[in-house]
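Quiz preparation item.
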């Protein structure tokens, strides 16, 4: 039997979207990135709302291999979901009217195996194509799923990155292709929003944990869980002092829907947790859910007086502007994610 998002999580999401559900009712949504980590949570939430809240929401999902996705995830063989076979850069516009668009393509899971120029071109070309679609269909609200990578490297003395921070990716580092692409995507949103009066919302997403998180990509959480499942040592690339934060995917989903419906146009929102944790602490917390607990191996600690690297957002804007009143803490988030994969 295929695992699905726990009903507890879906009830939690639904109870937090009482100000969103009426706007979703009887709507048609176009989604890119619907087969990825974010997309699966969005789709399961829509199906849950249709079944339990009678929202009657239909979705068209762009994907290059719809049959493979439906075969791998039978829960998404549903009459509310239609699949459009195509590439993000040149897909044919689906027929009919649409109310909303969620552009969540270009997640980072596969980027390690992709040429940097292809990453840049796909994000830019894909975003422009989606915005042309939004313009032609007169979409009521388009959500662009951006990334905290647009800020570049966070200064270690800056505890939390606010939306106003004007840092940028290092153009002399090829690994900046993703962050640079997302910045270009935001520029396109700004252009289309102002030139064509399109309502566009921007979600700058940071790091997340939860069911459907890939265990074979470059996500530390996923890698550590996979190490534990396969009874291998947890190997940390570095001394473990790097500071991160992780938002549970249920809270991510709530934030994305609230940004889509209630976010201000062309006003980026940091989506992520401000509850910081070191990579070493993260590994220990994950390992504690397995018996016997695996060995944790770090690289030799460098003798330095520098502050540890950070990647932690200031999330006060989503709390104050989007009324995100509570979030699942990291211990509970790890527990629920491990239970999903065990």
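Solution:
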């Amino acid at each position: 039997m295929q695992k699905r998002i726990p009903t507890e999580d879906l009830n939690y999401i639904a109870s937090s979207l009482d100000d969103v559900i009426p706007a979703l009712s009887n709507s048609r949504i176009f989604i890119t990135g619907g087969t990825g980590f974010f997309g699966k949570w969005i789709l399961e939430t829509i199906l849950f709302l249709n079944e339990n809240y009678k929202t009657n929401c239909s979705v068209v999902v762009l994907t290059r291999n719809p049959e493979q996705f439906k075969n791998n995830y039978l829960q998404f063989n549903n009459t509310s979901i239609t699949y459009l076979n195509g590439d993000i850069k040149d897909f044919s516009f689906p027929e009919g009217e649409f109310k909303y668009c969620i552009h969540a393509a270009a997640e980072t899971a596969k980027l390690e195996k992709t040429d940097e120029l292809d990453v840049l071109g796909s994000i830019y070309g894909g975003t422009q194509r989606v915005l042309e679609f939004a313009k032609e269909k007169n979409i009521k609200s388009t959500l662009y799923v951006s990334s905290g990578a647009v800020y570049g490297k966070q200064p270690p003395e800056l505890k939390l990155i606010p939306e106003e921070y004007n840092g940028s990716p290092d153009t002399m580092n090829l690994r900046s292709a993703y962050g640079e692409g997302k910045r270009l995507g935001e520029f396109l949103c700004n252009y289309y929003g102002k030139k064509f009066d399109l309502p566009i919302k921007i979600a700058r997403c940071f790091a997340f944990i939860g069911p459907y998180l890939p265990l074979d990509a470059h996500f530390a959480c996923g890698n550590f869980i996979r190490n534990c499942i396969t009874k291998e040592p947890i190997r940390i690339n570095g001394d473990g002092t790097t500071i991160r934060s992780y938002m549970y995917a249920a809270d991510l989903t709530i934030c994305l829907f609230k940004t889509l419906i209630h976010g201000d146009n062309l006003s980026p929102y940091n989506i992520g947790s401000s509850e910081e944790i070191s990579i070493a602490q993260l590994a220990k917390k994950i390992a504690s859910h397995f018996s016997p607990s695996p060995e944790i191996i770090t690289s030799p600690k460098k003798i330095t007086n520098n502050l540890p690297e950070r990647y932690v957002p200031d999330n006060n804007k989503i709390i104050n502007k989007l009324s995100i009143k509570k979030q699942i803490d990291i211990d509970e988030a790890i527990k629920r994610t491990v239970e999903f994969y065990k």
